[in-house]
Amino acid sequence: MSGDLKQFYDAVVIGGGPAGLTAGIYLARACFRVLIVEKEKFGGQITLTAEVVNYPGIKSVSGEELTGAMQKQAENFGAEFMLAEVTGIEDGGDCYSVSTNKGKLKCFGVLIATGAHPRKIGFKGEDEFRGHGVAYCATCDGEFFTGKDVFVVGGGFAAAEESIFLTKYAAHVTILIRGNDFKCAKSVADEVRENKKITVLTNSEIEEVSGDTVLRKIVYRNNKTNELTEKKYENDTFGVFVFAGYEPSTAFVSKVVELNDRGYIVTDAKQKTSKDGIYAAGDVCIKDLRQVVTATGDGALAATELEKYCTEMQKKTGIVPDRPKRKTAESEAAHGRPAAESAGKTGASGSSESSGNQKLFTDEMIAQLSMVFERMENPLVLKMYLDDRDVSRELKQYMSELASLTDKLTVQTASDNEEIKLPCVKVLKTDGTKTGMAFHGVPGGHEFNSFILGLYNMSGKGQSLDDSVKKRIKAIDKDVHMDIFVSLTCTMCPDLVTAAQKIASQNTRITTDVYDLAHFPEIKDKYNIMGVPCYVINGKEALFGKKTIEELLDLIEKE
């Protein structure tokens, strides 16, 4: 076997959710070189869950916190990480070649832990009104339906749980269940039925939604009587939240391992697939219970089996990949993640809790932020554009306290507001040159992470980029402006913001403005935004959904 052995791994784990991260912990701790490849965001679908209360030993934790701890644990044992899309797996005899959009990876064994993604139902109007009334994340989009009727489609745990959550905002929630009853625990179903703001309709299926710029009509059918119900909202709108389960992300291995008729991977009791050396774990597998705890169990079992397989292959080939290097706390700031995540969970989220003399950052957060600031190559200026509202005072306190933590940041207050949406903080170089990064509102909540990463990226080289991606960004020879509209409770928004700002950091002709829609209802009305993340390129149509750097470049290059 030829090739650079420095790029050879014992195992490549495809998927960075709970199953993949757990496998990474076990393999790296056992001194096997393991690379975890994730397409979008490490943590998986559970990062969208605000509160996990059924993970053993932990009373309550957010999905993002839980998987963030898993990733740090894997990293500390020496697991390696890559953001890339896997496009295929080839059998090379004594090793496998894993193809990605960033090149090929060689390894002895593979673990497929790509999970599943929300299933679309396919009713008429579903795609057309996504972001304009049709949504898939209650945490992200629930607040856009304050005081309005909401329909929830689905009868599983997610539908039940999210329906209860939506009562915080909605005037009323109607659940449409295709079957005779809920498919979740009776205790959860009972809680739903006892809620006076929720109506449960069984044997009911959504047929279509329609409207103009927003939803105006919904039609659903009783699948026992075939009776159609039509509701119109001529002077108002409503929302439809779809929680109809998930479908496995297995298309790229459909010709590599055996799948069942629904696309799930067939495995034996030890997580082995139909192919020697390839294992599967988590929601891609055929299983009755899809929970974080079962995913981690799958990942641990698959990893221990891979340990045996990799040991055999080392003996057979004489190839022993480099041993993983254990890492300590100082490495955690290399990507800016831990500091940003911890700070993002504070009360410094643009709310009244952050006013007054209360410190925004704990000693632990300050220590973590300091590690990020130390890696900033050049100082930056935070130029604030303020009015006399409370939110401007919060932004001023927020930026002032952040700048007090480092000599890499200084604060200025503009005397001329330049006819921009207030309040706003623009990030400048010390000579006054604009970096292409601006935030309107207060970058707290989930946006604190992306704001810190933005500063890190704007100060110099920042986060690493594949050479081919750099070339694509540098080749853009036209002015491009991206307006990005977010909610501070949205767990998907930071990915889009970070991707856009990273692109802007590499090309002075590209600029980004991020808006917390809570403070700019006129923008929400202008584009009829009923869901986030939302973005507009060069003032054109509103687009929805998180995007990677490569996906944003695809859109920019078409402009």
TrEMBL record:
Region listing for Disordered, in residue ranges: 317-359
A GO MF annotation of the entry reads: oxidoreductase activity
Q: Which residues form the FAD/NAD(P)-binding domain?
A: 9-299
Q: Which Gene3D superfamilies match?
A: 3.40.30.80, FAD/NAD(P)-binding domain
**Pfam families noted in UniProt:** Pyr_redox_2, Thioredoxin_3
* Annotated keywords: Flavoprotein, Oxidoreductase
Q: Which residues form the Thioredoxin-like fold domain?
A: 482-552
- CDD domains (UniProt xref): AhpF_NTD_N (cd02974)
Q: Where is the composition biased (Polar residues)?
A: 348-359
Q: What is the name of the protein in this document?
A: FAD-dependent oxidoreductase
What organism does the record attribute this protein to?
A: Treponema parvum
Organism lineage string: Bacteria, Pseudomonadati, Spirochaetota, Spirochaetia, Spirochaetales
